[in-house]
Amino acid sequence: MFPRIKDLRVLYSYKQHYVANYLALSQSAYSRIENGSSEITGSLLIKLSNLYQVSVDYLLDSTQMKNSSENSSDIV
Question: 48: buried, middle or exposed (CB in 10 Å: 19+, 13-18, 0-12)?
Fold first, then answer.
């Protein structure tokens, strides 16, 4: 389950059917992904990261940073 997927959708005020259409899925298929009853593919994760302009790592909840540009300021 990827809670950030739903959190970002709500943050952007997108409806499930909007995101589902963007991903070329039915609304019910997207709903199953969002609630964790269906798996998500790598290609869908990439599309979602592009839609929300965040890293795939952020979607997977493996980092607190939203995108890679935030990391580069820490390195310098």
Answer: buried
| Residue 28, domain member (yes or no) | yes
Q: pLDDT tens digit string along 31-71?
A: 999 999 999 999 999 999 999 999 999 998 866 655 544 44
Among 41, 44, 48, 16, residue whose Cα is nearest residue 30: 16
Would you state the structure tokens that stand for residue 69, as one six-digit string? 């540009």
Which CATH number characterizes residue 28's domain? 1.10.260.40
pTM: 0.79
Instruction: Look at the chain and report how many structural domains it folds into.
Output: 1
